[in-house]
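Chapter summary example.
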Amino acid sequence: MDRVQILELVSDRLRELLLLVREAGERVLAVYADDFDVVLKSDLSPLTLADSLSHEILFGSLPGIVPCPVLSEEGAEIPYSERSSWDVFWSIDPLDGTKEFVRKSGDFCVSVGLVLGQGPIFGAIYIPVRGQIYFGGEGFGSYRIVKETISSMESLSSKELLSSADRLDSGDSRPERNWVLLGSVSHGSEMPPELVRALFEKEKFDSFSIGSAIKFCRIAEGSADFYPRYGTTMEWDTSAGQAIVCGAGGGVVEIGSKSPLIYNKSALENPDFYCYGNRFKDRFPEILAPLSPLRRTRGARGRPWDPGTSEK
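The structure predicted for these 312 residues follows.
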Protein backbone atom coordinates (compact mmCIF):
# COMPACT_ATOMS: atom_id res chain seq x y z
CA MET A 1 0.00 0.00 0.00
CA ASP A 2 1.15 3.54 -0.72
CA ARG A 3 0.62 6.62 1.47
CA VAL A 4 -2.70 7.61 -0.12
CA GLN A 5 -4.13 4.10 0.24
CA ILE A 6 -3.05 3.84 3.87
CA LEU A 7 -4.54 7.20 4.82
CA GLU A 8 -7.79 6.29 3.04
CA LEU A 9 -7.89 3.09 5.08
CA VAL A 10 -7.25 5.02 8.30
CA SER A 11 -9.98 7.50 7.37
CA ASP A 12 -12.47 4.70 6.74
CA ARG A 13 -11.58 3.01 10.03
CA LEU A 14 -11.03 6.14 12.12
CA ARG A 15 -13.89 5.36 14.50
CA GLU A 16 -12.53 1.85 15.08
CA LEU A 17 -9.02 3.18 15.70
CA LEU A 18 -10.07 5.87 18.17
CA LEU A 19 -12.34 3.46 20.04
CA LEU A 20 -9.35 1.16 20.41
CA VAL A 21 -7.18 4.00 21.72
CA ARG A 22 -9.96 4.94 24.13
CA GLU A 23 -10.21 1.35 25.38
CA ALA A 24 -6.47 1.27 26.02
CA GLY A 25 -6.79 4.54 27.94
CA GLU A 26 -9.67 3.19 30.01
CA ARG A 27 -7.53 0.23 31.01
CA VAL A 28 -4.82 2.65 32.06
CA LEU A 29 -7.26 4.77 34.07
CA ALA A 30 -8.65 1.73 35.89
CA VAL A 31 -5.17 0.98 37.22
CA TYR A 32 -4.48 4.66 37.91
CA ALA A 33 -7.53 4.89 40.14
CA ASP A 34 -6.34 2.03 42.33
CA ASP A 35 -3.18 1.06 44.17
CA PHE A 36 -0.68 -0.55 41.85
CA ASP A 37 2.76 -2.09 41.95
CA VAL A 38 5.77 -0.70 40.10
CA VAL A 39 8.63 -2.85 38.84
CA LEU A 40 11.85 -1.72 37.18
CA LYS A 41 12.83 -2.89 33.72
CA SER A 42 16.43 -3.69 32.79
CA ASP A 43 17.06 0.00 31.95
CA LEU A 44 15.64 0.96 35.38
CA SER A 45 12.57 2.62 33.86
CA PRO A 46 9.28 1.85 35.65
CA LEU A 47 6.68 -0.63 34.46
CA THR A 48 3.14 -1.01 35.79
CA LEU A 49 0.12 -3.20 35.12
CA ALA A 50 -1.30 -0.29 33.10
CA ASP A 51 1.59 -0.51 30.60
CA SER A 52 0.95 -4.21 30.13
CA LEU A 53 -2.84 -3.99 29.80
CA SER A 54 -2.66 -1.16 27.27
CA HIS A 55 0.02 -3.00 25.29
CA GLU A 56 -2.12 -6.12 25.21
CA ILE A 57 -5.16 -4.45 23.63
CA LEU A 58 -3.18 -2.33 21.15
CA PHE A 59 -0.75 -5.05 20.06
CA GLY A 60 -3.56 -7.50 19.48
CA SER A 61 -6.01 -5.19 17.68
CA LEU A 62 -4.10 -2.57 15.66
CA PRO A 63 -3.25 -5.01 12.81
CA GLY A 64 -6.99 -5.41 12.30
CA ILE A 65 -7.20 -1.72 11.37
CA VAL A 66 -4.13 -1.45 9.14
CA PRO A 67 -2.63 -4.92 8.60
CA CYS A 68 1.04 -4.55 9.51
CA PRO A 69 3.45 -5.36 12.36
CA VAL A 70 3.47 -3.54 15.70
CA LEU A 71 6.59 -2.13 17.36
CA SER A 72 5.83 -1.40 21.01
CA GLU A 73 7.94 -0.16 23.89
CA GLU A 74 6.88 -3.33 25.69
CA GLY A 75 8.05 -5.51 22.76
CA ALA A 76 11.13 -3.67 21.54
CA GLU A 77 13.30 -6.77 21.35
CA ILE A 78 12.29 -7.44 17.71
CA PRO A 79 15.65 -7.66 15.87
CA TYR A 80 16.53 -5.23 13.11
CA SER A 81 17.05 -8.17 10.74
CA GLU A 82 13.28 -8.65 10.96
CA ARG A 83 12.23 -5.01 11.19
CA SER A 84 14.32 -3.95 8.20
CA SER A 85 11.84 -5.66 5.87
CA TRP A 86 8.86 -3.70 7.18
CA ASP A 87 7.33 -1.20 4.74
CA VAL A 88 4.65 -0.02 7.15
CA PHE A 89 4.21 -0.63 10.87
CA TRP A 90 2.57 0.63 14.03
CA SER A 91 4.93 2.35 16.50
CA ILE A 92 3.28 2.55 19.91
CA ASP A 93 3.89 3.52 23.50
CA PRO A 94 1.04 1.90 25.46
CA LEU A 95 1.67 4.23 28.40
CA ASP A 96 3.86 7.21 27.62
CA GLY A 97 4.88 9.02 30.79
CA THR A 98 4.97 6.10 33.21
CA LYS A 99 6.98 8.16 35.71
CA GLU A 100 4.21 10.77 35.73
CA PHE A 101 1.63 8.00 36.00
CA VAL A 102 3.41 6.72 39.12
CA ARG A 103 3.58 10.28 40.51
CA LYS A 104 -0.16 10.71 39.86
CA SER A 105 0.42 13.97 37.96
CA GLY A 106 -1.95 13.18 35.09
CA ASP A 107 0.77 13.92 32.50
CA PHE A 108 0.61 10.57 30.69
CA CYS A 109 -1.00 9.32 27.52
CA VAL A 110 -1.52 6.44 25.11
CA SER A 111 0.53 7.06 21.97
CA VAL A 112 -0.07 5.27 18.64
CA GLY A 113 1.88 6.10 15.49
CA LEU A 114 1.72 4.62 11.99
CA VAL A 115 5.01 4.64 10.08
CA LEU A 116 5.48 4.25 6.32
CA GLY A 117 9.07 3.73 5.19
CA GLN A 118 11.03 5.88 7.61
CA GLY A 119 8.44 8.53 8.44
CA PRO A 120 5.28 8.63 10.60
CA ILE A 121 2.20 9.39 8.51
CA PHE A 122 -0.51 9.22 11.18
CA GLY A 123 -0.73 9.41 14.94
CA ALA A 124 -3.26 9.28 17.75
CA ILE A 125 -2.60 10.39 21.33
CA TYR A 126 -5.16 9.94 24.11
CA ILE A 127 -4.77 11.88 27.36
CA PRO A 128 -7.24 9.97 29.54
CA VAL A 129 -7.14 12.16 32.66
CA ARG A 130 -8.05 15.23 30.58
CA GLY A 131 -10.43 13.49 28.20
CA GLN A 132 -8.67 14.56 24.98
CA ILE A 133 -7.71 12.63 21.85
CA TYR A 134 -5.41 14.22 19.27
CA PHE A 135 -4.99 12.57 15.89
CA GLY A 136 -3.86 13.21 12.35
CA GLY A 137 -0.91 13.54 10.03
CA GLU A 138 0.44 15.43 7.05
CA GLY A 139 -1.96 15.12 4.13
CA PHE A 140 -4.77 14.19 6.54
CA GLY A 141 -4.86 17.21 8.83
CA SER A 142 -4.69 17.10 12.61
CA TYR A 143 -7.63 17.23 14.97
CA ARG A 144 -8.74 17.11 18.61
CA ILE A 145 -11.83 15.62 20.18
CA VAL A 146 -12.84 16.04 23.82
CA LYS A 147 -14.89 14.27 26.48
CA GLU A 148 -18.39 14.71 25.05
CA THR A 149 -17.42 13.36 21.63
CA ILE A 150 -15.14 10.67 23.06
CA SER A 151 -17.96 9.30 25.21
CA SER A 152 -20.35 9.10 22.24
CA MET A 153 -18.01 7.66 19.59
CA GLU A 154 -19.97 4.40 19.34
CA SER A 155 -22.92 6.28 17.82
CA LEU A 156 -20.84 8.16 15.24
CA SER A 157 -19.50 7.05 11.88
CA SER A 158 -15.89 7.79 10.98
CA LYS A 159 -17.07 10.65 8.79
CA GLU A 160 -19.28 12.10 11.54
CA LEU A 161 -16.45 11.74 14.04
CA LEU A 162 -14.06 13.69 11.83
CA SER A 163 -16.61 16.43 11.17
CA SER A 164 -17.21 16.86 14.92
CA ALA A 165 -13.49 17.26 15.70
CA ASP A 166 -11.62 20.55 16.11
CA ARG A 167 -9.07 21.18 13.34
CA LEU A 168 -5.64 22.01 14.77
CA ASP A 169 -3.38 24.83 13.65
CA SER A 170 0.09 25.10 15.19
CA GLY A 171 0.43 28.65 13.88
CA ASP A 172 -1.86 30.38 16.36
CA SER A 173 -0.94 34.02 15.78
CA ARG A 174 -3.26 35.79 18.21
CA PRO A 175 -1.29 38.84 19.38
CA GLU A 176 -2.40 38.38 22.97
CA ARG A 177 -0.95 34.87 23.27
CA ASN A 178 2.50 34.77 24.84
CA TRP A 179 5.27 32.73 23.29
CA VAL A 180 5.54 29.38 25.08
CA LEU A 181 8.59 27.15 25.52
CA LEU A 182 8.12 23.56 26.70
CA GLY A 183 10.38 21.22 28.63
CA SER A 184 10.12 17.77 30.14
CA VAL A 185 9.07 17.04 33.72
CA SER A 186 10.90 13.74 34.12
CA HIS A 187 14.09 14.47 32.18
CA GLY A 188 16.51 17.32 32.69
CA SER A 189 16.92 19.75 29.80
CA GLU A 190 19.91 21.75 28.75
CA MET A 191 19.92 24.42 26.10
CA PRO A 192 23.15 25.86 24.71
CA PRO A 193 23.66 29.55 25.52
CA GLU A 194 23.47 30.44 21.83
CA LEU A 195 19.95 29.03 21.61
CA VAL A 196 18.82 30.78 24.78
CA ARG A 197 20.09 34.10 23.42
CA ALA A 198 18.54 33.58 19.99
CA LEU A 199 15.12 32.90 21.52
CA PHE A 200 14.99 35.63 24.12
CA GLU A 201 16.55 38.35 21.98
CA LYS A 202 13.48 38.20 19.75
CA GLU A 203 10.63 37.23 22.11
CA LYS A 204 9.84 36.75 25.76
CA PHE A 205 8.90 33.12 26.38
CA ASP A 206 6.80 31.65 29.16
CA SER A 207 8.23 28.25 30.16
CA PHE A 208 6.34 25.15 31.26
CA SER A 209 7.28 21.57 31.99
CA ILE A 210 4.91 18.85 30.81
CA GLY A 211 5.25 15.08 30.90
CA SER A 212 5.08 12.61 28.02
CA ALA A 213 4.00 13.17 24.40
CA ILE A 214 1.43 15.70 25.59
CA LYS A 215 4.03 18.31 24.62
CA PHE A 216 3.50 17.46 20.94
CA CYS A 217 -0.23 18.00 21.37
CA ARG A 218 0.32 21.46 22.83
CA ILE A 219 2.54 22.41 19.89
CA ALA A 220 0.01 21.02 17.38
CA GLU A 221 -2.94 22.93 18.83
CA GLY A 222 -1.00 26.20 18.89
CA SER A 223 -0.97 26.67 22.67
CA ALA A 224 2.84 26.29 22.73
CA ASP A 225 5.54 27.15 20.20
CA PHE A 226 8.82 25.33 20.78
CA TYR A 227 10.00 22.13 22.44
CA PRO A 228 13.77 21.52 22.20
CA ARG A 229 14.65 18.02 23.40
CA TYR A 230 18.16 17.03 24.48
CA GLY A 231 18.59 13.54 25.84
CA THR A 232 17.29 10.07 25.26
CA THR A 233 13.99 9.41 23.54
CA MET A 234 12.95 6.36 21.55
CA GLU A 235 11.04 6.10 18.29
CA TRP A 236 7.77 5.11 19.99
CA ASP A 237 8.02 8.25 22.14
CA THR A 238 7.83 10.56 19.12
CA SER A 239 6.16 8.80 16.17
CA ALA A 240 2.54 9.74 16.93
CA GLY A 241 3.45 13.24 18.10
CA GLN A 242 5.56 13.95 15.04
CA ALA A 243 2.72 12.95 12.72
CA ILE A 244 0.21 15.13 14.58
CA VAL A 245 2.50 18.17 14.72
CA CYS A 246 3.30 17.90 11.00
CA GLY A 247 -0.40 17.57 10.21
CA ALA A 248 -0.95 20.88 12.01
CA GLY A 249 1.75 22.72 10.05
CA GLY A 250 4.68 22.30 12.44
CA GLY A 251 7.68 20.01 12.42
CA VAL A 252 9.97 17.69 14.39
CA VAL A 253 13.59 17.79 13.19
CA GLU A 254 16.99 16.52 14.24
CA ILE A 255 18.95 19.43 15.69
CA GLY A 256 22.08 19.04 13.58
CA SER A 257 20.73 18.47 10.09
CA LYS A 258 17.28 20.01 10.67
CA SER A 259 15.85 17.00 8.80
CA PRO A 260 12.71 15.22 10.05
CA LEU A 261 13.32 12.40 12.51
CA ILE A 262 13.49 9.04 10.76
CA TYR A 263 12.20 5.70 11.96
CA ASN A 264 12.89 1.96 11.93
CA LYS A 265 16.61 2.56 12.34
CA SER A 266 18.88 -0.26 13.45
CA ALA A 267 19.13 1.55 16.80
CA LEU A 268 15.74 2.86 17.95
CA GLU A 269 17.03 5.84 19.94
CA ASN A 270 16.28 9.29 18.51
CA PRO A 271 18.83 12.07 18.13
CA ASP A 272 18.26 15.37 19.94
CA PHE A 273 15.45 17.25 18.22
CA TYR A 274 13.41 20.43 17.92
CA CYS A 275 9.61 20.29 17.85
CA TYR A 276 8.00 23.54 16.71
CA GLY A 277 4.78 25.09 15.51
CA ASN A 278 4.11 27.09 12.37
CA ARG A 279 4.34 30.43 14.19
CA PHE A 280 7.82 29.53 15.47
CA LYS A 281 8.92 28.51 11.97
CA ASP A 282 7.93 31.92 10.62
CA ARG A 283 9.52 33.91 13.47
CA PHE A 284 12.76 31.93 13.95
CA PRO A 285 13.80 30.59 10.51
CA GLU A 286 17.48 30.97 11.43
CA ILE A 287 17.16 28.42 14.24
CA LEU A 288 15.65 25.87 11.88
CA ALA A 289 18.08 26.49 9.01
CA PRO A 290 20.20 23.39 8.16
CA LEU A 291 23.47 25.31 8.47
CA SER A 292 22.43 27.14 11.63
CA PRO A 293 25.31 28.16 13.91
CA LEU A 294 23.18 26.80 16.75
CA ARG A 295 23.92 23.25 15.67
CA ARG A 296 24.69 21.19 18.77
CA THR A 297 26.28 17.77 18.94
CA ARG A 298 25.72 15.23 21.68
CA GLY A 299 27.89 15.92 24.66
CA ALA A 300 28.28 19.65 24.01
CA ARG A 301 27.91 21.61 27.19
CA GLY A 302 24.88 23.81 27.62
CA ARG A 303 23.61 25.63 30.65
CA PRO A 304 20.85 24.05 32.74
CA TRP A 305 17.40 25.33 31.90
CA ASP A 306 14.65 25.55 34.49
CA PRO A 307 11.45 24.95 32.51
CA GLY A 308 9.33 26.63 35.14
CA THR A 309 6.14 25.42 36.67
CA SER A 310 4.47 22.18 35.64
CA GLU A 311 1.19 22.41 33.79
CA LYS A 312 -1.59 20.56 35.55
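To summarize the output: The chain has twelve helices and 17 strands.
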